[in-house]
Design a protein that fits this description.
four-stranded antiparallel beta sheet; globular
Length: about 230
């Protein structure tokens, strides 16, 4: 039976006098895939920063395994993998060297073994000694994903992961996300490529006009339906 992993309870975020969003409430369960949509500036990336503990809500409560974030931040950071727009990779180092540095920070046991395993999983084993600056966009994105899965998280937060990927890399990512969910993980995805998100999503949430306007099952939804929600004045 799916486990309740993460929840947001009446969460709001403000920067000075500007309200990004307010009173956002939802639950995320294991084996669940949520597609989060919204216009540019709606606050999607800001919400992911809150969920990954990189920022704090102005009000409301975030919980992991039913515990407030403030009581379990190390557990949150170990179990929530966040893929943002910045690679945060060292371009002159190899993929293996990048992962070893990251793994050392997280005290990953048997780091050499896990590094090789993760690089094989993301399809970079043959290129693991090459400098990252020589990688294509798709290879770089795979290494960014490798950073996340090295810590063996329970939740993946992916912000526009398809950007810059060729067809084969998109197919690989879709297959990987399906396997991750089937193994008990949970995924939240931001993308403007609604067709790709809807291929896998169980639920769709829409941030619009500072509110969570929709949170419904993905079954039967089309990209056109999702786009229509965001055109509503």
């Amino acid at each position: 039976m799916p486990t309740h992993l993460l929840s947001a309870e009446q969460v709001s975020k403000r920067f000075g006098y500007r309200t990004v969003f307010q009173q956002v409430t939802f639950n995320l369960f294991s084996e669940e895939f949520i597609l989060l949509i919204g216009n540019n500036g709606a606050g999607k990336s800001t919400l992911f920063q809150l969920l990954s503990s990189l920022s704090r809500p102005s009000s409301g409560t975030l919980r992991f395994n039913s515990r407030p974030y403030r009581e379990c931040l190390p557990e949150v950071r170990r179990n929530v993998g966040f893929l943002g727009h910045e690679s945060r990779l060292y371009p002159d180092l190899s993929a293996a060297e990048n992962l070893r540095i990251f793994g050392t920070l997280y005290n990953i046991p048997e780091l050499e073994k896990h590094t090789d395993s993760v690089l094989s999983e993301v399809g970079l084993a043959m290129a693991k000694t090459l400098p990252v600056r020589t990688y294509s966009s798709g290879m770089t994105k795979r290494l960014m994903i490798a950073h996340m899965i090295l810590i063996n998280p329970k939740i993946l937060l992916l912000d526009e992961p398809y950007t810059g990927l060729d067809t084969s890399s998109v197919e690989w990512l879709q297959a990987y996300l399906k396997r991750f969910r089937e193994s008990g993980g949970a995924v939240m995805l931001i993308t403007h490529q609604f067709n790709l998100g809807l291929e896998i999503a169980d639920r769709v949430m829409a941030l619009h006009q500072q509110r969570l306007m929709h949170d419904i099952p993905a079954t039967g939804l089309t990209p056109e339906t999702c786009s229509g929600w965001l055109e509503t004045p």
